[in-house]
Design goal:
By secondary structure, the chain is mostly beta strands. The chain contains two helices and 13 strands; from the N terminus they run αββββββββββαβββ. Strands 1, 2, 3, 4, 5, 6, 7, 8, 9, 10, 11, 12 and 13 form a 13-stranded mixed beta sheet that branches. The longest helix has 11 residues.
């Protein structure tokens, strides 16, 4: 889908988002084909992303849209990028240190324990990471790269304006995360979460759909995640 075809709807939603920390995740009845092509994406895109700890305008635009059905959560990103950094790598490579990528963090109860981080670069390489603990209160920084979300899919496509990404996350495997408080959503279910992008272009920028009021650096501030509300 060409960027300008949905630019107007994005701008309208971004104005509303400034005054709300609740991000709607709209239900769809059909299964979405995860192929990186956004031309068939039905729900509105939100954005643009901003610098995560200041709210300042980013050098390049990022927009995201979220959908769900009975089985899966779907996320689509559209990233303007004049200089794509990265390459295809094996799954669970630490691409967050080197590559342009998009991310989603989900911590339903916002307690900073047993939440997930998923990242996908412009070449369809993905990782899924379990954050068991990030605070001294629960024993200090503990993560697991051995954690895998079975059935997760991600596809990226590079185009003349940048790249797009689609991700599918099955609910069935999230429910198995011990003490994660994930449950299969119904209408009205709310999860703490946020979507991000790292842009290793001419200037390295760490971007978020919703910035952090505390102005702290680093994406791992679950107490400041937005609220994702599943709605029909």
């Amino acid at each position: 889908m060409k960027f300008y075809l949905f630019l107007f709807s994005i701008i309208v939603v971004s104005v509303n988002r400034i005054y709300s920390q609740t991000i709607p995740v709209y239900k769809v009845n059909e299964e979405i084909t995860v192929d990186g092509d956004l031309s068939d994406w039905k729900n509105t895109f939100l954005g643009p992303f901003v610098i995560h700890n200041s709210g300042e305008k980013a050098a390049q635009n990022t927009f995201v849209s979220l959908s769900w059905n009975e089985e899966n959560l779907y996320i689509a990103y559209n990233c303007t990028d004049s200089k794509i950094i990265g390459k295809a790598q094996k799954k669970d490579s630490q691409i967050f240190y080197t590559d342009d990528l998009v991310e989603i963090f989900i911590d339903p109860d916002g307690d900073g324990q047993n939440y997930i981080e998923i990242g996908v670069n412009a070449f369809s390489t993905n990782y899924d990471l379990l954050l068991k603990c990030i605070s001294p209160d629960c024993g200090g920084w503990k993560t697991s790269m051995q954690f895998d979300i079975k059935g997760m899919e991600s596809v990226s496509k590079i185009n003349s304006e940048g790249y797009t990404v689609e991700i599918k996350i099955p609910f069935s495997n999230l429910e198995k995360i011990k003490n994660g408080n994930f449950s299969k959503p119904i209408n009205g279910t709310k999860w703490k979460a946020n979507t991000f992008r790292i842009d290793y272009g001419n200037t390295i920028e760490y971007l978020a759909l919703q910035p952090y009021k505390s102005l702290k650096f680093g994406f791992h501030q679950p107490q400041e995640f937005a609220v994702f509300e599943f709605v029909e």
